[in-house]
Amino acid sequence: MITLGAVVIIGGGCYGSFYAGQLAKAREKGSVIWRRMILVDQSPTCAVAATLGSIPDAELIVSDWSAFLDRWLDEDARRPDDQIVPSPLMPHLMADWLERRATREWPNAQVLRVPATTEFGTPFDRL
Fold it and tell me: Minimal CA–CA distance to 38: which of 69, 1, 76, 80?
């Protein structure tokens, strides 16, 4: 069995609902357990809201995703076994958080995003 702390799923639409459902099925089979599941969406009526009652230890937090990540990733109460499950369509959210954090940590440095110029050799390379 896999034991997880808090599982944070960013997005309560089709992807978030799918991930939460798959984790719930795995928990029913005794494959995984978590301390709590947090689904984050900007809408209180997102797709996953209707299924929350069937997912143990799950809650919906209605918040702007960037604002949530700023709080969650900077919070001292996080534990090493906590996980974030991002939507595959939202890599910019983590990049935005890194940019905000770096700017705050090093206020006198210039923090920039620069385009990749070399492929990394993964199946998902896109320059």
Answer: 69
**pLDDT for the residue numbered 77:** 65
CA-to-CA distance for 43 and 54, rounded, in angstroms? Answer: 19
pLDDT at residue 76 in the model = 64
Least Cα distance to 102 among 61, 74, 65, 63 occurs for: 74
CA distances for 9 relative to 13, 86, 107, 112, 123, angstroms? 10, 6, 30, 28, 24
- Token pair 């896999």 is found at 2
CA angle 117, 122, 126 (to 5 degrees): 45
Q: How far apart are CA 61 and CA 39, in angstroms?
A: 6
pLDDT, tens digit (0-9, with 9 covering 90-100), for 76-118: 667 888 998 888 778 888 889 999 999 999 999 999 888 888 8
- Cα 79 to Cα 63: distance, rounded to the nearest angstrom: 21
Q: How far apart are CA 127 and CA 121, in angstroms?
A: 11
* Distance, C-alpha 86 to centroid of its chain: 4
